[in-house]
Design brief:
Blueprint lengths: L3 H30 L12 H4 L5 H14 L3 H20 L3 H20 L9 H28 L3 H21 L6 H19 L5 H28 L2
Protein backbone atom coordinates (compact mmCIF):
# COMPACT_ATOMS: atom_id res chain seq x y z
CA UNK A 1 0.00 0.00 0.00
CA UNK A 2 2.84 2.36 0.76
CA UNK A 3 4.16 1.90 -2.81
CA UNK A 4 0.91 1.86 -4.80
CA UNK A 5 -0.53 5.06 -3.34
CA UNK A 6 2.35 7.35 -4.41
CA UNK A 7 2.35 5.77 -7.88
CA UNK A 8 -1.40 6.32 -8.22
CA UNK A 9 -1.08 9.94 -7.15
CA UNK A 10 1.77 10.42 -9.57
CA UNK A 11 -0.25 9.04 -12.47
CA UNK A 12 -3.28 11.18 -11.58
CA UNK A 13 -1.06 14.25 -11.36
CA UNK A 14 0.45 13.53 -14.80
CA UNK A 15 -2.98 13.03 -16.40
CA UNK A 16 -4.34 16.20 -14.78
CA UNK A 17 -1.38 18.25 -16.00
CA UNK A 18 -1.78 16.86 -19.51
CA UNK A 19 -5.49 17.70 -19.61
CA UNK A 20 -4.87 21.18 -18.27
CA UNK A 21 -2.16 21.71 -20.87
CA UNK A 22 -4.56 20.71 -23.66
CA UNK A 23 -7.33 22.90 -22.24
CA UNK A 24 -5.01 25.91 -22.13
CA UNK A 25 -3.56 25.21 -25.58
CA UNK A 26 -6.89 24.87 -27.44
CA UNK A 27 -8.16 28.47 -26.94
CA UNK A 28 -4.78 29.83 -28.01
CA UNK A 29 -4.86 27.72 -31.17
CA UNK A 30 -8.43 28.81 -31.96
CA UNK A 31 -7.59 32.48 -31.47
CA UNK A 32 -4.48 32.18 -33.61
CA UNK A 33 -6.32 30.64 -36.57
CA UNK A 34 -9.36 32.98 -36.65
CA UNK A 35 -8.84 36.20 -38.69
CA UNK A 36 -9.36 39.47 -36.90
CA UNK A 37 -12.81 41.02 -37.33
CA UNK A 38 -13.45 44.81 -37.26
CA UNK A 39 -15.52 46.08 -34.30
CA UNK A 40 -19.25 46.05 -35.03
CA UNK A 41 -19.01 43.14 -37.50
CA UNK A 42 -19.43 39.39 -37.29
CA UNK A 43 -17.12 37.00 -39.09
CA UNK A 44 -18.85 33.83 -40.33
CA UNK A 45 -17.17 31.01 -42.20
CA UNK A 46 -18.81 30.44 -45.59
CA UNK A 47 -19.17 26.71 -44.96
CA UNK A 48 -21.30 27.54 -41.90
CA UNK A 49 -23.22 30.32 -43.66
CA UNK A 50 -24.05 28.05 -46.62
CA UNK A 51 -26.09 25.90 -44.24
CA UNK A 52 -28.43 28.89 -43.73
CA UNK A 53 -28.84 29.70 -47.41
CA UNK A 54 -32.50 28.70 -47.51
CA UNK A 55 -33.48 30.90 -44.58
CA UNK A 56 -34.48 33.92 -46.71
CA UNK A 57 -36.91 31.80 -48.73
CA UNK A 58 -38.38 30.32 -45.56
CA UNK A 59 -38.87 33.78 -44.04
CA UNK A 60 -40.74 34.81 -47.19
CA UNK A 61 -42.93 31.71 -46.92
CA UNK A 62 -43.74 32.57 -43.31
CA UNK A 63 -44.42 36.19 -44.30
CA UNK A 64 -47.01 35.05 -46.84
CA UNK A 65 -48.66 32.67 -44.39
CA UNK A 66 -48.82 35.37 -41.71
CA UNK A 67 -50.30 37.87 -44.17
CA UNK A 68 -53.05 35.44 -45.19
CA UNK A 69 -53.95 35.03 -41.50
CA UNK A 70 -54.07 38.79 -41.00
CA UNK A 71 -50.92 38.98 -38.86
CA UNK A 72 -49.35 41.98 -40.54
CA UNK A 73 -46.80 42.68 -37.80
CA UNK A 74 -45.45 39.15 -38.08
CA UNK A 75 -45.41 39.55 -41.85
CA UNK A 76 -43.35 42.71 -41.53
CA UNK A 77 -40.91 40.99 -39.16
CA UNK A 78 -40.41 38.06 -41.54
CA UNK A 79 -39.87 40.41 -44.48
CA UNK A 80 -37.17 42.29 -42.57
CA UNK A 81 -35.46 39.02 -41.66
CA UNK A 82 -35.46 37.95 -45.31
CA UNK A 83 -34.05 41.34 -46.31
CA UNK A 84 -31.20 41.00 -43.80
CA UNK A 85 -30.27 37.58 -45.19
CA UNK A 86 -30.29 38.98 -48.72
CA UNK A 87 -28.07 41.93 -47.83
CA UNK A 88 -25.55 39.56 -46.26
CA UNK A 89 -25.64 37.43 -49.42
CA UNK A 90 -25.08 40.54 -51.53
CA UNK A 91 -21.98 41.41 -49.50
CA UNK A 92 -20.16 38.34 -50.81
CA UNK A 93 -22.06 37.58 -54.02
CA UNK A 94 -21.26 37.97 -57.69
CA UNK A 95 -21.30 41.47 -59.18
CA UNK A 96 -24.20 40.93 -61.54
CA UNK A 97 -26.59 39.74 -58.83
CA UNK A 98 -25.53 42.09 -56.02
CA UNK A 99 -27.75 44.88 -57.32
CA UNK A 100 -30.77 42.59 -57.70
CA UNK A 101 -30.36 41.29 -54.16
CA UNK A 102 -29.98 44.77 -52.67
CA UNK A 103 -32.89 46.16 -54.68
CA UNK A 104 -35.16 43.31 -53.63
CA UNK A 105 -34.07 43.63 -50.00
CA UNK A 106 -34.97 47.33 -50.12
CA UNK A 107 -38.42 46.53 -51.57
CA UNK A 108 -39.04 44.03 -48.77
CA UNK A 109 -38.02 46.61 -46.17
CA UNK A 110 -40.32 49.23 -47.69
CA UNK A 111 -43.26 46.84 -47.65
CA UNK A 112 -42.47 45.86 -44.06
CA UNK A 113 -42.60 49.54 -43.09
CA UNK A 114 -45.88 50.07 -44.94
CA UNK A 115 -47.51 47.15 -43.16
CA UNK A 116 -47.26 49.07 -39.87
CA UNK A 117 -49.48 51.81 -41.33
CA UNK A 118 -53.18 51.25 -40.46
CA UNK A 119 -54.12 52.86 -43.78
CA UNK A 120 -51.98 50.42 -45.75
CA UNK A 121 -53.77 48.84 -48.73
CA UNK A 122 -51.17 46.30 -49.83
CA UNK A 123 -52.75 43.04 -50.99
CA UNK A 124 -51.45 39.49 -51.27
CA UNK A 125 -50.71 40.28 -54.93
CA UNK A 126 -48.42 43.13 -53.87
CA UNK A 127 -46.63 40.87 -51.39
CA UNK A 128 -46.24 38.11 -53.98
CA UNK A 129 -44.85 40.57 -56.53
CA UNK A 130 -41.96 41.74 -54.34
CA UNK A 131 -41.43 38.22 -52.99
CA UNK A 132 -41.24 36.72 -56.48
CA UNK A 133 -38.53 39.18 -57.50
CA UNK A 134 -36.63 38.51 -54.28
CA UNK A 135 -36.83 34.74 -54.74
CA UNK A 136 -35.67 35.03 -58.36
CA UNK A 137 -32.67 37.09 -57.23
CA UNK A 138 -31.89 34.50 -54.55
CA UNK A 139 -32.16 31.66 -57.07
CA UNK A 140 -29.75 33.46 -59.39
CA UNK A 141 -27.30 34.18 -56.58
CA UNK A 142 -27.36 30.60 -55.30
CA UNK A 143 -26.97 29.19 -58.80
CA UNK A 144 -23.79 31.24 -59.29
CA UNK A 145 -22.51 30.14 -55.88
CA UNK A 146 -23.21 26.50 -56.81
CA UNK A 147 -21.27 26.90 -60.05
CA UNK A 148 -18.36 28.53 -58.21
CA UNK A 149 -18.31 25.89 -55.47
CA UNK A 150 -18.34 23.12 -58.09
CA UNK A 151 -15.42 24.64 -59.97
CA UNK A 152 -13.44 24.88 -56.72
CA UNK A 153 -14.24 21.24 -55.87
CA UNK A 154 -16.44 22.07 -52.88
CA UNK A 155 -18.93 19.42 -53.94
CA UNK A 156 -21.01 19.25 -50.75
CA UNK A 157 -21.43 23.03 -50.70
CA UNK A 158 -22.26 23.06 -54.42
CA UNK A 159 -25.05 20.56 -53.77
CA UNK A 160 -26.60 22.71 -51.05
CA UNK A 161 -26.48 25.84 -53.19
CA UNK A 162 -27.94 23.98 -56.17
CA UNK A 163 -30.86 22.62 -54.14
CA UNK A 164 -31.66 26.02 -52.63
CA UNK A 165 -31.52 27.65 -56.07
CA UNK A 166 -33.99 25.12 -57.48
CA UNK A 167 -36.32 25.56 -54.49
CA UNK A 168 -36.33 29.35 -54.79
CA UNK A 169 -36.98 29.22 -58.54
CA UNK A 170 -40.03 27.08 -57.84
CA UNK A 171 -41.18 29.47 -55.10
CA UNK A 172 -40.69 32.47 -57.39
CA UNK A 173 -42.77 30.86 -60.13
CA UNK A 174 -45.61 30.18 -57.69
CA UNK A 175 -45.60 33.79 -56.45
CA UNK A 176 -45.67 35.08 -60.05
CA UNK A 177 -48.93 33.15 -60.61
CA UNK A 178 -47.58 31.10 -63.50
CA UNK A 179 -47.44 27.34 -63.90
CA UNK A 180 -44.07 25.69 -64.28
CA UNK A 181 -43.46 24.59 -67.85
CA UNK A 182 -42.59 20.96 -68.48
CA UNK A 183 -39.00 21.88 -69.26
CA UNK A 184 -38.65 23.94 -66.07
CA UNK A 185 -40.23 21.19 -63.99
CA UNK A 186 -37.78 18.67 -65.42
CA UNK A 187 -34.78 20.93 -64.81
CA UNK A 188 -35.83 21.70 -61.21
CA UNK A 189 -36.40 17.99 -60.51
CA UNK A 190 -33.05 17.01 -62.04
CA UNK A 191 -31.28 19.77 -60.09
CA UNK A 192 -32.69 18.45 -56.82
CA UNK A 193 -31.62 14.88 -57.64
CA UNK A 194 -28.18 16.09 -58.63
CA UNK A 195 -27.86 18.22 -55.50
CA UNK A 196 -28.60 15.20 -53.35
CA UNK A 197 -25.86 13.21 -55.06
CA UNK A 198 -23.38 16.05 -54.58
CA UNK A 199 -24.27 16.34 -50.90
CA UNK A 200 -23.88 12.58 -50.45
CA UNK A 201 -20.66 12.65 -52.48
CA UNK A 202 -21.51 9.78 -54.80
CA UNK A 203 -23.51 8.76 -57.87
CA UNK A 204 -22.77 11.67 -60.22
CA UNK A 205 -20.65 12.24 -63.32
CA UNK A 206 -18.57 15.39 -63.90
CA UNK A 207 -20.27 16.22 -67.21
CA UNK A 208 -23.68 15.61 -65.67
CA UNK A 209 -23.07 18.19 -62.94
CA UNK A 210 -21.89 20.87 -65.36
CA UNK A 211 -24.89 20.33 -67.63
CA UNK A 212 -27.30 20.36 -64.68
CA UNK A 213 -25.96 23.63 -63.30
CA UNK A 214 -26.05 25.25 -66.75
CA UNK A 215 -29.62 24.05 -67.36
CA UNK A 216 -30.86 25.54 -64.10
CA UNK A 217 -29.13 28.83 -64.89
CA UNK A 218 -30.93 29.04 -68.23
CA UNK A 219 -34.30 28.44 -66.59
CA UNK A 220 -33.62 31.17 -64.01
CA UNK A 221 -32.71 33.60 -66.77
CA UNK A 222 -35.81 32.60 -68.77
CA UNK A 223 -38.00 33.15 -65.74
CA UNK A 224 -36.62 36.64 -65.21
CA UNK A 225 -36.94 37.79 -68.80
CA UNK A 226 -39.92 35.89 -70.17
CA UNK A 227 -42.10 35.17 -67.12
CA UNK A 228 -41.47 37.51 -64.20
CA UNK A 229 -41.46 40.85 -66.01
CA UNK A 230 -44.61 40.16 -68.14
CA UNK A 231 -46.44 38.87 -65.04
CA UNK A 232 -45.62 42.06 -63.13
CA UNK A 233 -46.66 44.27 -66.06
CA UNK A 234 -50.08 42.60 -66.21
CA UNK A 235 -50.92 43.68 -62.64
Amino acid sequence: MSIRLPLTCLLLTAVTCTLLGIAHAQPKLAIATVPACPPGYLLVEEEMWSQLMDEAGRHLDRARESFLHGHTRTTALELRKAAIMMRIDAAHGQDRVDLALIKSAHELEVMALQLHNPQNTDSIDDLDEVSSKALAALADHEHLKADLAWKHHHFHRAGRYLRSSADNLERATFRARVALSTSTTDVVRDARVLSGRLIEGTGYAIDEVGLGIDALGKQIKHFGHAVLQPAIERR
